[in-house]
Amino acid sequence: MQRQIDTLARSLGEFIDQPDYPTLVLNGTDAALVLPTRILAGRDRQDDDHYYLLFPEPCVDAAQYLAAIVRSLKKQIEVFGAELGARKLPPWPALPLEAEDARQAPDRRLELIVRYMGRQLPGSSPIVWGLLPGELVDIAGYAALVRPLLLPGTVPPWMDRHRFLVRDREPEPAIVPALLAAQNERVLVLDVELDNAHVMSSLADAAQDRSLSPDERMLAFYQLAAVDFSYQRYPDALEKYGAMFNYYSDSGNKPMQALCLTGAGDVHLAQAEPDRALERYQQSLAISVDDANLPAMHAGSYGAGVSCLALERDAEAEGYLTHANALAGKLNNPYAKCDAMEKLGVARFRQGKTREAVDIWLKGKALAKQFAYDERTKSIIEHLVVACRNSGLVQQERELARERASIESHEHQSAREPEVVDA
């Protein structure tokens, strides 16, 4: 195992030191991606030749992850400003307003942030970006966020000074297969395969390491809760989310409070306890509304809507999911919007609002196809097939079946594409 760790550390170092490839995709489970983050944190403390900007915050929602990046950078900018002030030097300018504007496309905002840091950090030393969320749930939204870093074309000049480490998610990767299908040789890929027992031990060590800041230790604790959840150790996950909520309440960190409550709600839903899940999502909403935290408001609204569907409180579900749909639009997250539109259609269909349900499903299907969100496209088609069957619309049902078969055929063809070995 130590040999694997040494090999991983050497591979990361070689990527950081080379000038030809700006982006490396690390492919692995949430648990396996813990170790690269710790290796980068160790380099940050010892390496004076590079700047390190590391963002291990969870990505339950891509917009929320981007908001966490902005918050972290603003804190770091404040620290830089204090140091410059002590030296009688002018402070840095603020982050561009467009970079903080949730109405702007997330990938555009990330590009503006990268450009800003490239201009402001002194000298010409490379800047290493660890965009490695410890928990990756919103894979579609995350892939859209980091799309400019995946180099669909030639490397733009604004990337010259930077090294980007991003991630994919096993067992259902989305980024790496797309790179292979496109024969994209401008991006490096590294599979991270580590023994789960060692990773868990590493996480536990990080959570207890008093040389780390309390926030860093608590993020490791958060990852332990996510691992507990993935292995269906639900009581352990709930205990950790509760302890973290108390910590973040004491420190006044409302975004993380809301995230812990949402995590607890997810655990209750997985345990088929929608009534308790709804309570947690409502508590999360109360905090996020007061904090004007749009990503957390979306997560709470969507979770509450799904809980109400499980409780067969369909009118309430429609209200929550209408808000979730609108918030996803404000956040420019088409994937979350497609999810909300599908569930909103279910809530309407159950109430006998067939026309309204079909209308939102058709819009959701069109949006999902536009963004190649095949999983959601197929599930919405299933709902439309049932609606057509109940209404005796045989021809429309056949057309939908052909549409679904076409999507599945395209997926199988992509899966058979020959793999490209990265240079």
Structural class of the secondary elements?
alpha/beta
User: What is the CATH topology classification name of the largest domain?
Assistant: Serine Threonine Protein Phosphatase 5, Tetratricopeptide repeat
Number of DSSP strand runs: 5
Q: Tell me which CATH architecture of the largest domain applies here.
A: Alpha Horseshoe
Helicity level: 55-70%
Distance between the termini: 26 Å
Characterize the quaternary organization of these chains: single chain
DSSP helical segment count: 17
Backbone CA Rg: 22 Å
Q: Provide the residue-averaged pLDDT.
A: 86
Largest sheet: 5 strands, parallel
The proportion of residues in beta strands is 5-15%
The order of strands across the largest sheet is 2-3-4-1-5
How does the overall form come out from the CA principal axes?
Answer: globular
CATH class of the largest domain: Mainly Alpha
Order of helices and strands: HEHEHHEHEHEHHHHHHHHHHH
Question: Low-confidence spans: pLDDT under 50, at least 5 residues?
Answer: 414-423
- The CATH homologous superfamily name of the largest domain equals Tetratricopeptide repeat domain
Total individual domains: 2
Task: Give an overview of the whole structure.
There is one protein chain. The chain has 423 residues and is an alpha/beta fold. It has two domains: 2-194, Rossmann fold, CATH 3.40.50; 219-412, Tetratricopeptide repeat domain (Serine Threonine Protein Phosphatase 5, Tetratricopeptide repeat, Alpha Horseshoe), CATH 1.25.40. It is built from 17 helices and five strands. It has helices at 2-17, 34-46, 62-86, 106-120, 139-145, 175-181, 196-208, 214-230, 234-251, 254-270, 274-291, 294-310, 314-330, 334-350, 354-370, 374-391, 394-415, and strands spanning 23-28, 51-54, 127-130, 162-169, 188-191. It has a five-stranded parallel β-sheet, with helices on both faces. Helix 5 links the parallel strand 3 and strand 4 (162-169). The longest helix is centred in the N-terminal third of the chain and has 25 residues, at 62-86. 41% of the residues are buried. Mean pLDDT is 86; it is low at 414-423.
